[in-house]
Amino acid sequence: AVATTLINEGMQGFTMEKVAAEAGVAKGTLYAYFKSKEDALEVTIDSIVEPLAVTLDNIAQSDMTPTEKLSRYSTLHFAFFDDNRDLFRVILHDREQAHAPKERFQDSRYWSFVQKLARIFEDGVHKGEFLPLPSLKVSSMFIDANISLVMQRLADKVTGNIDKDVELVMGVFLRGILANPGISKDASGD
Question: Could you tell me if 136 and 114 are in contact, meaning their C-beta atoms sit under 8 angstroms apart?
Answer without folding.
Answer: yes
